TrEMBL record:
Pfam families: ThiS. InterPro entries: Beta-grasp_dom_sf (IPR012675), Mopterin_synth/thiamin_S_b (IPR016155), ThiS/MoaD-like (IPR003749). The lineage of its organism: Bacteria, Pseudomonadati, Pseudomonadota, Alphaproteobacteria, Hyphomicrobiales. This is Molybdopterin synthase subunit MoaD. It comes from Enhydrobacter aerosaccus. NCBIfam families: moaD.
């Protein structure tokens, strides 16, 4: 699965994207966040509990309870506004 990071999250993690092989028990976006936090201090900071960020699964915004079965890409991004 490809994981992408945008804006300050990219700088904090240290990469714009990475290819990961997630364990079978990582079933939702929330599970992925918890698993990624353990990868590095940058991941832990960018994906910290209480941090404001959103997710997209295969280019569609997704709540954190979204299942990952069959997903090819998950992206994380800070809040944004339109205008």
């Amino acid at each position: 699965m490809k994981v992408k990071y945008f804006a300050w999250m990219k700088r904090t993690v240290g990469v714009a994207e990475e290819q990961v092989d997630v364990p079978a028990d990582v079933r939702t976006v929330a599970d992925l966040v918890m698993w990624l936090r353990a990868r590095s201090a940058g991941h832990a900071e960018a994906l910290a509990e209480g941090a404001a960020f959103g997710a997209a699964v295969d280019h569609r915004t997704a709540p954190f309870d979204t299942p990952l079965a069959g997903a090819q890409e998950v992206a994380f991004f800070p809040p944004f506004t339109g205008g």
